[in-house]
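1st attempt posting a full record on here, be nice pls
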Amino acid sequence: MGAALRLRLPELGERMTERIRAEVESYADESLIPFASLRESCEDNADLLLGRFAYGAEPDVGAAQQTGRLRAEQGVPLADTLHAYRVGFELLWSEMVEEARRHPEVTDAELVGGSSEIWALFGRYAEAVAAAYREASAELALQREARRSALAEALFTGALADRTTPWEAARQLGLPERGPYAVVAASVPDPGQEPLPGIEAALRRFGVASVWRLLPDQQIGLVSLQHRDAEKVSLRALRRRRARVGVSPRFDSLRDTPQALRFARLALAGLPGDGPGVTRFDDSPLAMLVAAAPAEASRLVEVSLGPLLALPAAERARLLQTLGHWFTSGGVAAEAAERLFVHPNTVRYRLRRIEEVTGRALADPLAVADLGAALYALRVLPS
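the predicted structure (as tokens):
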């Protein structure tokens, strides 16, 4: 019976292919699975299966594994691939039953036994298909992720290959080809740990496209701001993750991504304190200047506040606190006094003491600018 059917393999492969294309939607797409390719696969699998019945050959799942890998590469759903196998097995079994009627020596008991065996073989083949499909899918996912990571790195560094433009890279990364965009940089608490877990999926749910890279010290991302509420949605999602985050200004050309990354990192470096927070580069240009030139900012502190910093600890702390509240109050001594819970005259006395120690008059706008910048630098720079 099996030997007789093997003589009809070309015909069986053709019919099996037509049946599968009629019953499984994704298999009907000629551009996805060419007819000739599917017919070859059907013949190979049927040949191995009939060899089992004709000569008692050991089951060979090699063709099933090859099919599983191929369908994964073609992007055919696993459910459709298994459905196609079931259709093929059903047709083959019906042909075996029909062939058995031409052979009186084949008993009903043998047919029942054959039925049991062929569906056991179906289970074995299906397992082989599924295992090979999943293995190939995992490999393809790793390859796609590696490609995606390399393209993202190329955008962030500006090191795209000659054959790939920034816009082609954006298309492959699922980003719009036109801005505005923003770059995000977040501090990594521990190597390998994401400070912004699930951020790409969270933004995608609101229609905001982005791509991310995890580095040893930072997680960086390129975010599309084309969506009307993209900036608001992004900032809300970033704040929810309780990380230290810097955000670049908006920019329109992907060629400016490396510069935007620098701005995002400067914003992150200028974030005061040690706790979580999100700061945008444009929120405090002074902070960005301090972060961009820490050595120069340290020198500014030394020149502008050096004499004050040399005072005994108690007086130094008192005067720095007063100067800080005076700036926060817009230069209004009475308001600074309320913040400090002291009399306004006390604030005025301390301000005169600051002028005396630093040699800078608080009525002079240039002196005030120097002192304000130095005071800010003192707060944000490492001790």
